[in-house]
Design brief:
single chain; 437 residues; alpha/beta; Rossmann fold; N-(1-d-carboxylethyl)-l-norvaline Dehydrogenase, domain 2; six-stranded parallel sheet; binds uridine-5'-diphosphate-xylopyranose; oxidoreductase
């Protein structure tokens, strides 16, 4: 099949590459000329495991192309994916300016039947808006479909290739048939296509993301309670997660959720519910709790040093909002660093992938180190924000020799408490007892 993908962010690039991988002819469109030139030269603009390999393979096989010229892409393709950004407006709503502007162009440019598939997370009713914009401009037949994407950063290729379900929101029989064919390489009995109307499909994406954000936040509050009453959240997590109605995933407490999706989507659903006249109270609480959770290591750190913190030197492991990505959008590390800088604290930091992005924000306000151990030289304590694999089994003796004091505040519970006790650390984590020397 001939496919155009408009927008080459995470979702667009992964969609384009994976659809090419199963044999389709894909042309990716972006207005960013430098980015398109870079991709034509075989450079992947984002870090995502396994993407580069497929990207290069499909360019070589002549199935994956790039252009800035929308008309060229439209003329060659019947299926048009929209994978455009929907940034958060000041009031929390999703800004549709990119989607609407492309809809206008589609109305001007299409000359034969097209299936326009929206992959971006867009508020309920956006398919209808897109449909109406195009309809006002052309009499050519077309269908607009909502087909939300559920991929996770760090697992984007894997999630696209083996989705747990594919949601198709449309009433058009013709479009359903074509999409069933398009997705047939990814569908199995266990990975079904679920067809519904456009609005339900749009809401499914928000409901999924905000439910997961709520599940994490619930567990973060359980962890906070554990700290006060002296229970262990690891045990509580296992205890409730083994109930199949609850499930054991997305129950890991920490210093809050971040990223490009959860915070934005919770805000957007709160906003669109308010607009629709519904007060989505649980999601408002999720936002409040998450905001304070992101800073929850700071009071622990202050308390340990009896509020004498301004002369302290603090090391940080982890800057990305989660492991296996260089993405720092809404990363708890930003809240942590901002609080520390406000107190005039000296910071050294390391992250395997996200340092270039953080440097753009903080410049020389913090010292970026070449590896995890360089961070520790003469620090009064270590703060852990991201659970990168390479942090899990460090040389504790080497750490202690480098640090001024063996004190760790762990926002991701990466160490075993017994191990920390044996190694002589003061160790505070989330929802677990404090380990003292
Ligand atoms: C999420 C959804 O999982 C995905 O389906 C959707 O398409 C986009 O949004 P992503 O933002 O890439 O994906 O990250 P995810 O792995 O879901 O983690 C989101 C945040 O939740 C991270 O900040 C992570 O640290 C946090 N998290 C996740 C927890 O704090 N605890 C958990 O148990 C799981």
């Amino acid at each position: 099949m001939n496919i155009a993908v408009i927008g080459t962010g995470y979702v667009g690039l992964v969609t384009g590459t994976c659809l090419a991988e199963v044999g389709n002819n894909v042309i990716c469109v972006d207005i960013d000329e430098a980015k398109v030139a870079q991709m034509k030269n075989g450079k992947v603009p984002i870090f995502e495991p396994n993407l580069e390999e497929l990207f290069l393979k499909n360019i070589k096989a002549n199935r994956l192309h790039f252009t800035t010229h929308l008309k060229t892409a439209l003329d060659k393709s019947q299926i048009i994916f929209l994978a455009l950004p929907t940034p958060q407006d000041e009031d929390g709503s999703a800004d549709l300016k990119y989607v609407e502007s492309v809809a206008h162009e589609l109305g001007d440019l299409i000359t034969d039947y097209k299936i326009i598939i929206n992959k971006s997370t867009v508020p309920v009713g956006t398919s209808e808006i897109v449909k109406n914009i195009i309809k006002r401009k052309t009499s050519v037949a077309f269908d607009v479909i909502s087909n939300p994407e559920f991929l996770r950063e760090g697992f984007a290729v894997q999630d696209f290739m083996t989705p747990e379900r594919i949601i198709i929101g449309t009433k058009s029989k013709k479009a359903i048939d074509i999409l069933n064919k398009l997705y047939s390489p990814f569908i199995t009995l266990k990975r079904p296509v679920i067809v519904m109307d456009e609005k339900s499909a749009e809401l499914t994406k928000y409901a999924a993301n905000t439910f997961l954000a709520t599940k994490i936040t619930f567990m973060n509050e359980v962890a906070n309670l554990c700290e006060i009453i002296g229970a262990n959240v690891d045990d509580v997590r296992k205890g409730i997660g083994s109930d199949s109605r609850i499930g054991n995933k997305f129950l890991f407490p920490g210093i809050g959720f971040g990223g490009s999706c959860f915070p934005k989507d919770v805000n957007a659903l709160v906003h669109s519910s308010d607009t629709a006249g519904y007060n989505f109270q649980i999601l408002k609480s999720v936002l409040n709790v998450n905001q304070s959770q992101k800073k929850s290591l700071i009071p622990k750190f202050k308390k340990y040093f009896n509020n004498h913190i301004s002369s302290k030197k603090v090391g940080i492991w982890g800057l990305a909002f989660k492991p296996n990505t260089d993405d720092i959008r809404e990363a708890p590390a930003i809240d942590v660093i901002n609080e520390l800088l406000l107190e005039g604290i000296e910071i050294t930091a390391y992250d395997p992938e996200a340092m270039p992005n953080m440097k753009r924000i903080y410049g020389d306000k913090i010292t970026f180190c070449n590896n995890a151990y360089d961070v520790l030289k003469d620090v009064d304590c270590l703060l852990i924000n991201t659970e990168w694999r390479e942090f899990y089994s460090p040389d504790f003796d080497k750490m202690k020799k480098l640090m001024k004091q063996p004190v760790i505040f762990d926002g991701r519970n990466i160490f075993d408490m017994e191990v920390m006790k044996i190694n002589g650390f003061h160790y505070e984590s989330v929802g677990r007892k404090i380990v003292t020397k």
